[in-house]
Amino acid sequence: MEAPASFSPLSIALSLAMAAVILCQLLLKLFAAATPSPSLPPGCMGFPFVGETLSFLKPHHSNSIGTFLQYHCSRFGTVFKSHLFGSPAIVSCDRELNMFILQNDDKLFKVSYPKAMHGILGSNSLIIAAGDTHRKLRNVVVSFVSWCKSNPTFLHSVDKLSVSLMESWRCQTRVFFCKEVKMFALSVMVKELLGIEANESVGLRILDEFETYMKGFVSLPLNLPGTPYYKAVKARAKLSGIVKEMMKERKKKGLVVGVEKEGDDHENFLDVIMSNWKLDEEEIVSVVLDILLGGYETTATLMGLIVYFLAHSPPNVLAKLKEEHEAIRNGKGKGEYLNLEDYKQMEFTCNVIYEAMRCGNVVKFLHREAIKDVKFKDIFIPSGWKVHPVFSAIHLDPTLHPYPQQFNPWRWRDDKEMSKKVTPFGGGPRLCPGIELAKLEIAFFLHHLVLNYRWKTSSDECPLAYPYVEFKRDLLLEIQPCSC
Ligand code: HEM
User: At which positions is heme bound (predicted)?
Assistant: First the structure.
């Protein structure tokens, strides 16, 4: 008779371990079958070469997402593939993916403007620079912003420029608002940055060349005489020449930094850059142009949007804004300058500014490129593909913002999560360094505007995303002094 099989504790343990391994493998297989591996999102690559670029860029009211996104999101979902600006691309209207893209700058994604824009921006621009060069140049801009904010003459200068703009409108009943505030925003910038008045001949030349420069960004990259692109490249060369000339003059005179100058002739930031930062000539020119580029058109556009939305909102919005500024003015002596303490009182004003950014979308989307294969949830983004996080889709998402088309500054008071639901200034390592400067400039300007004027826009006026926001008729306003 055979003896019954005996199992040693070791063989039992081994069998159990093998069973556990087999079970785990089975479970893993089952799980993998249930969750599909990340894949390219659905979408449409459009026509050969141009892809879907023209329909993506089709102008629409900037307070809407436009028909292209409407159609694509309803057909493919909030993340889809396409072919834009000459490359295969992923378009993201998904808040989480957008944040992921912004936070992973230089790790998984890099900034990637169409090649043509490099010709206009110049190779040293921090807007296209990466790594250490980006950090170095960005630090200069960050220090410019804190230099301005801590400089009482900057606050006086913004205040004085606002007052003189209000005075220049005294005899007028109609103003082309965008043209006027572009000049205002540029004046603020060139005064602080270069120490010149925008109505000096050199200031006017800068404004003129900048207009041409900006037009190049939204033009076809045809470098042929007469085209907007060609003119923009030339305008950059002229602007660069103007800044270099100024640097030469300053070197000739000898720089004295840290010495208080009398009256309005205070230190300007070009002097500070030249003495305190180890940058070569081309880098200085680039950082100056980047600050002007980043700081003046965007700020002026936002001012236009605020004025537009106030004119098209229920009267209680403007009334509340006016009440805030009357209270501030009543606490001051006649003609007394605004200061940082006053700015801190402008809570509702800041909510008006934020709400105009949410509704008006100064920056609709960004340009990025995947530098390696990226997997995000069930989405696969191949290395080398362009990626476009679209901000307007998040800003106008009805699941995040009830009645998204409604201009309602109070939502910023009532919903403490609002700042997490909008990204008008981008995010991550490239978050706009000029936020506080733009807000302060606009708040001071609004103080004088609401206390001095009432306004109406013409009925057919509206902000259009080209994708840069432009008003149909340069925002033609009918104005009336408040006392009338
Ligand atoms: C309403 C006003 C403004 C808006 C809506 C705005 C928006 C933005 C956005 C969305 C970005 C991110 C770009 C990206 O990630 O590729 C950015 C970057 C930048 N902004 Fe602003 N901006 C405004 C005002 C200003 C001002 C006043 C300055 C001047 C100091 C400025 C200077 C810059 C610079 C230099 C960058 C590049 C930063 C980097 O790449 O690290 N911006 N801005």
Answer: 432
Distance from Cα 1 to the centre of ligand 1, integer Å: 90
Ligand 1 atom having least distance to the Cα of 426: 10
- Flag residues of the chain having pLDDT under 70: 1-37, 218, 255-266, 484
Given a contact cutoff of 8 angstroms between Cβ atoms, the answer to whether 53 and 84 are in contact is yes
pLDDT in tens, 130-141: 999 999 999 999
Q: Quick one: which atom of ligand 1 is closest to the CA of 431?
A: 12
> Which atom of ligand 1 is nearest to 145's Cα?
30
Residue 484 labelled as part of a binding site: no
Best residue among 98, 362, 432 to mutate for probing ligand 1's pocket (most ligand atoms within 8 Å of CB) is: 432
Q: CATH 1.10.630.10: does it fit domain 124-361+396-481? A: yes
pLDDT in tens, 209-221: 988 888 887 677 7
Task: State the pLDDT at residue 484.
Answer: 47
For the chain, the domains span 124-361+396-481
Residues with CB under 6 A from ligand 1: 111, 126-127, 138, 141, 145, 290-291, 294-295, 298-299, 302, 362-363, 366, 424-426, 430, 432-434, 437-438
